[in-house]
Each structure stands twice: as structure tokens, then as C-alpha cells.
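In the previous chapter we treated chains in isolation. Here, by contrast, the input contains two separate entities that must be folded as one system, with a combined length of 228 residues.
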Amino acid sequence: KQEVTQIPAALSVPEGENLVLNCSFTDSAIYNLQWFRQDPGKGLTSLLLIQSSQREQTSGRLNASLDKSSGRSTLYIAASQPGDSATYLCAPCMEYGNKLVFGAGTILRVKS
Amino acid sequence: DAGVIQSPRHEVTEMGQEVTLRCKPISGHDYLFWYRQTMMRGLELLIYFNNNVPIDDSGMPEDRFSAKMPNASFSTLKIQPSEPRDSAVYFCASSAWDRTSTDTQYFGPGTRLTVL
């Protein structure tokens, strides 16, 4: 059974800092890995999707890397802003069917 | 496109009552997912459909839970009878996915269910 762990569980930083959010998973038989953002009381918004054959994916100030063999992914946020405050969720998609398994998330607060 | 639509957004009911949650996926998407989110257990996949057919319902917690997808544009998740421990936010998501696709899952706003 796939287990997903996200570290840290919570993070509070001043505006402008570069951030690193970590995700580890136990089963490397994944098709892709997705990072989502969830604002309080809202649904999930997809940020980045990395295929299992890729090493990284970039969108604006966000960069996600994937090391499938070691079961790790990292989300980098450059020059953080208060608007980045949210919960960030990592979810590998299993090869055997279109199933996402979610981590518990990292709660990010960026202070102005 | 309006995105994934869920109704109701909030539901408060008493223990023992039947609850029906509704979802309209994004047009053209052939996968539909039902998730449940709680503080204790996080986000869990309950069931998913492909072309209106249930593929994996291993996450459905008990026989009190059932899901249907009568057509490509509508799905329901039913809880009968409801219990206080069913209180959670229920999300519906849809995607267009095959082995060559990069499409992600698109989530609805969720239904916040409170069972008293």
C-alpha cells in the first residue's frame, strides 16, 4: 500500500524567502506525481504534474523535482509571497489504475 | 467550462437520515472520482469511475455508502443511514486520462457534510 509523507507539516516564513517542501512515497510504481494547492474551505488546484520519466517541471516561481527510484519529490517556491499561503499536497498517481494517493500536506504561511 | 460542479455545498442532517451528494464532471472527461477529506485521515479516494463504470470501490468505507454514475455528466454518492463519523468534506474530481495524457484531476469545491 502506498504511503505518502510530507515534511514539514507546517511552515511559517517571511515574504521573499525561497522554500522547499518535501514529499516521500513508499511505492515507486507510479505513473506521475502531482502537486496541488488547497486554500481554506476550498477545493484543490493542480500546480504541477511530473511524469515518471521526467526529473522536473517548472511553472512560474514553482519548480517540482522527482526521483522516482528513491521515492522522493520536492516542490521549490521562489521568492514567496503572502498569496502563496495555503496547504500544499503531494499525490503520486499509481501505475495500476488512475489513482492518486495524497500526503497529509504542508501548511504554508507567508508573512508580509 | 464551469469546472466540476458539486451540490449541495453544505449539508447538515441528523443521524440515520439518507444523504445524497451530486457531481457534474467536466464535459469530455471520462474519469470521475469521489474523495473524502477529514482532519484525522486526510484526503482519501472512495471510488472512481471510467466511462460511467465503477473501476475501484475499495475505498468505500461501508455498505452504507453507494455511488452511481447513470451517464457521463452526472454522479451521486449516497450515504444511508448517515452517522456522525461520516461528517467530512466530500470532493468530486474528473479527468481525461490515458497512458499518453498529461491531464490532471480537476476538483470540485466540495460538499461539507455535518451529521448531528
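The two ends of chain A are 41 Å apart (CA to CA). The CA atoms of residues 14 and 91 of chain A lie 27 Å apart. Compare these points with the single-chain example from earlier in the chapter.
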